[in-house]
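Record type: monomer structure entry
Structure origin: computed from sequence
Chain ID: A
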Amino acid sequence: MRTRTSLIVFVLMLPMSVGFAHAENWLQGQVLEQHGGTKRPATGAQVWIVNVGNPYLTQADGGYRVLVPDAIRIGQTIALYVKRKGWAIATPLAGKVQLSPELTRDIILAPEASPIFLSAAQFDKFLENLPEKLRKQVTLTGKDGAVDPM
């Protein structure tokens, strides 16, 4: 009888203990600077998930890891941001990453004035965001300065 009672208590407690068990998901990879045909680690760059915050500094090898909140699931798309003076994210395009089960993604930076940002994919992304940027320049009370499509 005592074994049966212990077994029943164990079975009833199991779902509660599973609720407390929680594995953190970390997206990780390397941040690399593209110099012509070569790439080198971007040491000391800040990396974070847009609208989540909590920046992490890259290591000497360019390695990073950012905590993915529980609300974000595998298969969803997030936007990453890398803060490094004079550099911008070349790939993935606009920093958008679809989370894979492996939770790994490398980030390639290019100088802000690089011709890579004139690629067809980059130009399409610019045109996609242009209407939103133009709407932000106009307020309910009228124009908030001259509308500049650039």
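Annotation 1: The first strand starts at residue 25 and ends at 35.
Annotation 2: The radius of gyration is 23 Å.
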